[in-house]
């Protein structure tokens, strides 16, 4: 299966600086063929205040999390912190899925994914192998470069070397940079995004994940983080149904 070129014009042009355009990928897909995902929908069919999609049949809501705050033993405390980490991770996954869903449905982007094993305890965090938008193709390294440059430019982090990082830290930084790239692209398309304030931390070892808390469309329509997460849930369901990744 070969990559499909896309030349569909989005509602507003994707503008990129000369530096960012250097990251356009001309690499052939010769190692493992990624699976494409594209929804042939238009702006008219996209609901900015979308209805909540159906939850998976095996979904269970944890109602005991708040009560665990009262536990004082180390084991119970550790269990509570682990649950909080899972919740935070799932929220990040839903947000980045929601941003991809927005780019697909509103701007005819195509994302390519490599099949990987599914997460057992958390929602799968999807990083595309490559994406196509408005005739521009970017691989994951190109997205990371754009995201890191944008995060550095706005003062969120400093450019750092990966040579002393563990594989886990490299992966976490990659996830944060791809998220930053999607935000940068949406910003160039006329969207305004608000973010959760990052905690002050000296000597960060990974690129911080900038968490979206609100999104404003070019026409002024404001969507909350809950809307973005719902789009992410819908995207996750669609990909799971099609067994894309």
From TrEMBL:
Residues 1-14, 39-50 have a biased composition (Polar residues). Residues 15-28 have a biased composition (Low complexity). Residues 1-61 are annotated as: Disordered. This is Uncharacterized protein.
